[in-house]
Amino acid sequence: MNIRSFRLGDYAEITSIWKETGLEQTETESLDALAKQLAWDSELVLIAEDHDRVVGVIVGTIDGTRAYFYRLAVDPEYQKKGIGTQLVKALEKRFEEKGASRVFIMVNQDNEKVIPFYQELGYEIEHYITLSKKL
């Protein structure tokens, strides 16, 4: 298993993984969001690769000393093999190298099955309410 930075040729494979795992948005929203993140800091979009096949992805961002990640997804054929954990740990290392002191993640409240995964990695449930507005 190899964890590396995103390359443009990975886009089709990661969008396929996002669709298979229910993290898809529209094609335009996904491409726009990814393009903005890559322009901001391309080292925070990581890919898990197995024998030249993209099998996982995680997208991170930093705001001062606070780091965030989202859209962690592993190809269903490769789940339960520690790939998600490897991606999170690799991204946490990059966050530390860039001066982040705290990491936040947002989980859809309907996706309760991932909460134990994050708790095993040391993440705690915070009691915040997230508000959003589409522009």
Kindly, what is the distance between the CA atoms of the first and last residues, rounded to a whole number of angstroms? 39 Å
Counting DSSP E segments of at least 2 residues, the number of strands comes to 5
Q: What shape does the CA trace take? A: globular
Question: In sequence order, what are the helices and strands, one letter per element?
Answer: EHHEEEHEH
Give a quick account of the main beta sheet: strands, pairing sense, barrel closure. 5 strands, mixed
Lateral arrangement of strands in the main beta sheet: 1-2-3-4-5
Helix content: 25-40%
Q: Beta-strand percentage?
A: 25-35%
Enumerate the spans where pLDDT stays under 50 for 5 or more consecutive residues: none
Please state the structural category: alpha+beta
Radius of gyration: 14 Å
Helix segment count? 4
Describe it.
This protein is of the alpha+beta class. The protein has four helices and five strands. The protein has a five-stranded mixed sheet with strand order 1-2-3-4-5, with helices on both faces. The N and C termini lie far apart (39 Å). The relative contact order is 0.14. The model has no long low-confidence stretch (mean pLDDT 87).
List keywords for this structure.
135 residues, alpha+beta
